[in-house]
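so im writing up the methods section and need the Right handed beta helix domain-containing protein record in one place, dumping it here so i stop losing it
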Amino acid sequence: MNHRIAAPLLLVTLALLCVSAFANAEPLQDTGTTPSHDGVNFYVSADAESNGNGTASSPFQNLTQARDGIRAARKSGELKPNQSVTVQIEPGVYRLDASFHLAAEDGGTAEAPVVYRASQPGSVRIRGSIELSPAAFSAVADDAIRSQLDETVRNKILVCDVSTEDRTAFPPLKTAFRGVPNAPWLYVNRHPKPLARWPNLDTPEQGWASFSKAIDSGLAEPDSTDTTRRKPRGGSFEFDDPRPARWNLEAGVWLQGYWTHDWYDEVIRIASYDPANKVIKLAAPHNYGIMAGTWGAAKRRFFAFNTLAELDSPGEWYLDRSAGKLYYYPESDFANAFVELATLDQPLFRIDNTKHVKFQGLALEYGHGDGIVMKRAEAIEIAGCVIANLARGGISIDGSDNTVRSCDLYNLGTGGVSLNGGDRKSLTPANNRAINNHIHHYGLFQRSYAPGIGVHGCGQIVTNNCIHDAPHNAIQYGGNEHRFERNEIYRVVMETGDSGAFYTGRDWTSQGNVLRHNYIHDLGGGDSTHVNTMGVYLDDCDSGDTIEGNVFLRAGRAIMIGGGRDNRIVNNLVIDCPIGMHLDSRGMTWKQWNSPTDKSWQLERKANEMNYQEPPWSNRYPTLAVIMDDSPREPLHNEFNRNIFVNCAKQVWNFDANVKKVLAKLQVSDNVVLNTHGAAEGIAMAPEIDGFNNVIGTDQEPIVIGFASEDETALTQIDDTRVRAAVPSFQPIPFDTIGLTKDAYRRVIP
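--- predicted struct ---
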């Protein structure tokens, strides 16, 4: 388990939990990574001559040559169908100007796989970038450029010509986009660098400017007498700060903002600025309008970027895309810096309709696309690899029986790992797996709905991952029969609102998913006022999930069910969360719950598409099969049993008036609410309701529940008879099995 947050001594996990996360961890078995005795070896070296034949003495230069060598050997008969192939890759940097592509002919079999292996794990670096020498940077001499720079820094800015023989210009940024800007992107000393921006990242507001008055939302007004307002247009807002007057709008300045909702960001170019009235007008409409029905804070946030005038903080850069000139404000010791400019906007690896291939110990990095994209893939294993410093996502999998194991994924523009496959109608599982991966610092460009792990389809497995440091979700899922077990999640949902570490929503048919024995802690603002962040969020009538045996610590509103049904909330431990549990009745009060005109809801239509009233659905989900005859708008058949709530600051449970009316139709029993020291204020107790027991300690006889040491690894045992008597059926949570573990590919826990 990854423990990087010091916890107050007061907080510890339950005495029914166990000791150190790693003390007894057993390495996983190496799953078939050794080729058979009659396998064939090919060799690759970045320093090889161009005419190598793939032998140890005359290796290939790159992976494409190795792939083609395997094809040729199979065609000639030198390589038999029952022979495994291992491509031994020597240390070095291997640069790509197009995706490394594997097709159906490049796969193996279960008994004879094709293995691409680093001879020294981590030493094979596959890059979609060009290296820039610090010596190629020089002081800015052009007076026209210098005049645009702040006089306090203009002598510190360096410039490098990044135009090439086949490209003198880079494509301009789009007028509006969500997510990844056009290539390239700059990385220095293995970290992505920010485009020149305002406010800077080190400001008190953490790099955000704000406004509170919209002039024009930009939304279409169908009944307007002004024909130009009947369709969407760029909105405008009042910004009471003279800073925009410094910017060269003709050259282009873009704003990335949460324009209406705290869960949807977008980048839009500035069209104009009126300094007299202090109004910024945007060049394209925003999907939700400008301040058009805000969820969350009344103020809206944005930052400006891609303007030379704001190149004023060490680490920032700016690219003159037409001239191919890159300007950089260097940090210390730039002469010895490692500088990469990511240019390849294709996936580094593309795998189509391929079976039984393994990638071991490789580092895929510095690209402006995805790391690995797999479609119709079967039994592909990615093990012990590093996927980092990419503008898009890490690994995208569509297929069955594929595995991402013990990989490190970080500094990603969008999400980490995506799993998709299986057949929902027949409930056939895909058995794709994400196991023991460390995923962090993602969502750097697309700030929302770019999760650490995204799961769709049927029957994916997500276990023992550590996910942290991101603006939005850790795990976002939909579909059926997925398992999420023993994952540690922290410092996510750090920038967004109305969102959760685990998130799913708006679908009755997303059934059979199990969230068990996960540790979710230190989310969002991390204090008692932060109740718009959830640990697990089943949004908009999502139904049929099991949330069992999880630990929530400082996790905002720990468990939120937005009007859904058939959810089991059992045996969870909730510590120091402002609100422990939430169930509302939005299906009963929101008109769009089943509206045929709202494509994103249409709950009954989605169910009909799955033939939900026929086997196997009617057998597997019997209450769903009869939902239209069973008060479909009510949040029925939810179960809340054997949960322990410790020192909730605001509310133990939040049930609205309609929920209270149907409580008799729910299963609520054996839940315990603890006030460990008997605080008179600041700790909520459960109001009188069947199924909740209050237990109160004192300063003289406190209830000892919490972490016994600041690193949260040593756990006390619960010997408190008051708690054991109140919930004798509470099952031990195997805390020592949660999070990253050592195995054949992960020798050290970070």
